[in-house]
């Protein structure tokens, strides 16, 4: 992704702001997902074809993870190492979601579609965050 495309997507030419916006978007989506799993683990578990206990555990993890990413997004200039950790965690989540779907989970059709969609979304966050981090490093060597 070029710096111009990234800037247009983030609606800013400042690479620090772009990075913070992509981290904040990750926070919002991840936090909302986690809260939904916590608040409605029973109905969502039945709909997705996964155990409500698994959704409760994932929900708690996601809320805590989102809080950490929110803290990072709140920094005027998020440090590169923690941003890389978020990128790598997002990539790991996307890969493990697909592996779990293939080897472990037996969800409903809706659950299988949801698993793939959320994996693609999280991988997209990782790509945007990585591109913004690189753009920031190129403008501030």
Keywords, separated by commas or semicolons:
141 residues, mainly alpha, transmembrane helix
What this model shows, in words?
By secondary structure, this protein is an all-alpha fold. It has one domain (3-139). The chain has helices at 3-10, 15-39, 41-48, 52-74, 80-103, 109-139. The longest helix is centred in the last third of the chain and has 31 residues, at 109-139. The radius of gyration is 16 Å and the shape is elongated. It starts with a helix and ends with a helix. The mean pLDDT is 91.
What would you report as the Rg, rounded to the nearest angstrom? 16 Å
Total beta strands: 0
Largest sheet: none
Number of helices: 6
Domains (count): 1
User: Helix content range of the residues, please?
Assistant: over 70%
Query: Which class best fits the helix and strand makeup?
Result: mainly alpha
Span between N and C termini? Answer: 19 Å
The fraction of residues in strands falls at: under 5%
pLDDT under 50 segments (min length 5)? none
Mean pLDDT: 91
Write the H/E string, N to C: HHHHHH
Oligomer: single chain
- Shape label: elongated
């Amino acid at each position: 992704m070029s710096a111009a495309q990234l800037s247009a997507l983030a609606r800013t030419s400042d690479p620090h702001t772009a990075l913070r916006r992509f981290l904040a978007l990750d926070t919002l989506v991840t936090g909302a997902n986690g809260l939904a799993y916590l608040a409605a683990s029973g109905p969502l578990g039945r709909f997705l074809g996964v155990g409500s206990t698994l959704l409760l555990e994932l929900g708690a993890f996601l809320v805590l993870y989102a809080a950490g990413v929110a803290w990072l997004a709140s920094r005027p200039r998020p440090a590169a190492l923690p941003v890389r950790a978020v990128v790598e965690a997002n990539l790991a989540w996307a890969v493990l979601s697909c592996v779990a779907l293939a080897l472990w989970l037996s969800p409903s059709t809706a659950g299988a579609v949801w698993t793939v969609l959320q994996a693609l979304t999280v991988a997209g966050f990782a790509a945007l965050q990585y591109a913004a981090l690189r753009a920031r490093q190129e403008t501030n060597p």
